[in-house]
Amino acid sequence: xxxxxxxxxxxxxxxxxxxxxxxxxxxxxxxxxxxxxxxxxxxxxxxxxxxxxxxxxxxxxxxxxxxxxxxxxxxxxxxxxxxxxxxxxxxxxxxxxxxxxxxxxxxxxxxxxxxxxxxxxxxxxxxxxxxxxxxxxxxxxxxxxxxxxxxxxxxxxxxxxxxxxxxxxxxxxxxxxxxxxxxxxxxxxxxxxxxxxxxxxxxxxxxxxxxxxxxxxxxxxxxxxxxxxxxxxxxxxxxxxxxxxxxxxxxxx
Length: 253
Description:
The chain has 11 helices and 2 strands, in the order H-H-H-E-E-H-H-H-H-H-H-H-H. The chain is 62% helix and 3% strand. The two termini are 27 Å apart. Helix 5 crosses helix 9 (178-190). By secondary structure, it is mainly alpha-helical. The protein folds into 2 domains: 1-101, Arc Repressor Mutant, subunit A; 102-250, GntR ligand-binding domain-like (Four Helix Bundle (Hemerythrin (Met), subunit A), Up-down Bundle), CATH 1.20.120.530. It has a two-stranded antiparallel ribbon.
């Protein structure tokens, strides 16, 4: 199943040929069509699927090399790099994951990072937020409550809620991780059944509780409630990824 990416624009222009080639090769690598150590197909092999020039192919390879997905070896050509070498936090690499099939291991990794990072952002936001910060967070929450569950506007409002909390933390290093958090959130929202109102209502309650703690300027409470929100989101997503397979046994506490 492929899901739509609502995150901010990536660094590549999809209208440029080399960007299209880079995307096609990257999605194939992330999907496992090409394994670590495999020789990357050349431009001639790609012409049956996409119009590609030698110049565009070379530019695409440069992009993938810079992002760690491929590496050039003397007398061996350009080969797929081991996953450990990929720049997983790169906006383009994160976006390409949305065009590949869901990967539970990567999803768990994103949520684990989110569990470390987002409660800290919420704690700082509660302590440091300005009136303008609070207006943005409240507006985003209202956007979640006034549109239909899982509609595009609702998803964008949810992302805006979490982004506003990172901004309110007034920590530029933390703000660099916003794209990771929004990627994990999108997995949760976009993999959901459109009629799963129970999860949606429960999630709204979690968000409102975080907002209340930030309004109260209670950092510890905001962190605690954000932790609960992240755990609930992961558990519900795992259930969806493993329908009928006892996914509850994998529940995170």
